[in-house]
């Protein structure tokens, strides 16, 4: 039944999962039996750390005074998702520096560093730009998936702080380029990814190596200096959109490490996003729950 303000709703099922965008990426990579390390601020006995340990996901944390926030996600039978997010724990200046130091140390031998999510209160508004600059000398590839002011602050630092992969959705792509977000969504839904490709190309011109814009049920587009590709997902029953974008990032990164070309990276990314959307709650897909061969990829430029 739909959510009714002031009404009483009986929940059919309840699950509790360690989440957050970066944690979701780490979980997806771990489920694929690939080496990964989640880096996050948390108290030593925080439930999120216990949950990661129970699932065998390696992590490194920086001790902070407050517990990690708990978010509530309500998923209806048709896949409609309503999220209630608590405010994040405040991150002090020393905490932010400690996290940066831990991240840099962890990435010295890494192939990819994925920077995901909103910034906690107290973090510098341009923190993602600072992190990209700190990681760049290591030679590690850097992916960023964020939104709103942290995304705008990062964009203002292009090309100096431009990542190797930027993953906006259509609304975020519009925010960065001045495009009409509703027009991008409408065109993609009608089978025309051209406007989204044109907007993504603006960010490539500004220094981003690869832009992968996710377009919900319309799939995704990938743009780099060599060209542009669009991808349509296989038909699925959408059960929850939680973690779909994060799973797409994980799929892309793992495909790149495996040496796949642009079309193959996009296909695996969309397959992982579709796999997540077909699962209930905040479940993250295993490789067996994804099917890159069922994704239709088209070279556009």
CATH hierarchy, class: Alpha Beta
Using the alpha-carbon principal axes, give the shape: globular
Uncertain residue segments:
none
**Count of strand segments:** 11
Helix-and-strand structural type: alpha/beta
Strands ordered across the widest β-sheet: 5-6-7-8-9-10-11
Helical percentage: 25-40%
Strand content: 15-25%
Largest sheet composition: 7 strands, mixed
Q: Can you tell me the CATH architecture?
A: 3-Layer(aba) Sandwich
The pLDDT mean sits at 89
CATH superfamily: Ribokinase
Give the number of domains: 1
CATH topology: UDP-N-acetylmuramoyl-L-alanine:D-glutamate ligase
The value of Rg in angstroms is: 19 Å
- Order of helix and strand elements from N to C terminus: HEHEEEHEHEHEHHHEEEHHE
Structural summary, described in words:
There is one protein chain. The protein has 301 residues and is of the alpha/beta class. The protein is built from ten helices and eleven strands. The protein has helices at 21-31, 47-54, 93-106, 127-135, 148-156, 170-177, 181-189, 194-205, 244-257, 262-277; strands at residues 38-41, 59-62, 72-75, 81-84, 112-116, 141-145, 165-166, 210-214, 220-224, 227-232, 296-299. The strands form three sheets. It has a seven-stranded mixed β-sheet, with helices on both faces. It has a two-stranded parallel ribbon with strand order 1-2. A two-stranded antiparallel sheet has the order 3-4. α6 (170-177) crosses α7.
Task: Give a summary of the structure in a few sentences.
Residues 7-280 form the Carbohydrate kinase PfkB domain. This protein is α/β, with parallel strands linked by helices.
């Amino acid at each position: 039944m739909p959510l009714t303000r002031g009404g009483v709703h009986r929940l059919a099922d309840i699950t509790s999962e360690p989440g957050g965008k970066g944690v979701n990426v780490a979980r997806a990579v771990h489920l694929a039996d690939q080496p990964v390390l989640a880096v996050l601020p948390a108290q030593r006995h925080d439930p999120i750390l216990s949950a990661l340990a129970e699932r065998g996901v390696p992590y490194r944390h920086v001790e902070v005074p407050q517990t990690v926030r708990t978010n509530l996600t309500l998923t209806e039978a048709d896949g409609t998702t309503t999220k209630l997010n608590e405010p994040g724990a405040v991150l002090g200046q020393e905490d932010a520096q400690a996290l940066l130091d831990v991240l840099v140390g962890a990435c010295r031998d890494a192939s990819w560093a994925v920077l995901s999510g909103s910034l906690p209160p107290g973090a510098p508004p341009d923190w993602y730009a600072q992190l990209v600059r700190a990681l760049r000398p290591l030679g590690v590839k850097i992916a960023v998936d964020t939104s709103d002011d942290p995304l705008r602050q990062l964009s203002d630092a292009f090309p100096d702080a431009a990542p190797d992969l930027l993953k906006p959705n259509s609304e975020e792509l519009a925010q960065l380029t001045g495009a009409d977000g509703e027009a991008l969504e409408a065109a993609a839904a009608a089978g025309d990814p051209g406007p989204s490709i044109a907007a993504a190309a603006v960010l490539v011109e500004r220094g981003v190596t690869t832009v992968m814009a996710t377009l919900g049920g319309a799939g995704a587009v990938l743009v780099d200096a060599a060209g542009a590709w669009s991808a349509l997902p296989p038909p699925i029953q959408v059960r929850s959109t939680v973690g779909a974008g994060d799973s797409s990032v994980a799929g892309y990164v793992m495909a790149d490490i495996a040496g796949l070309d642009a079309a193959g990276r996009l296909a695996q990314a969309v397959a992982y996003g579709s796999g997540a959307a077909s699962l209930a709650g905040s479940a993250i897909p295993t490789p067996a729950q994804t099917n890159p061969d069922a994704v239709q990829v088209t070279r556009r430029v």
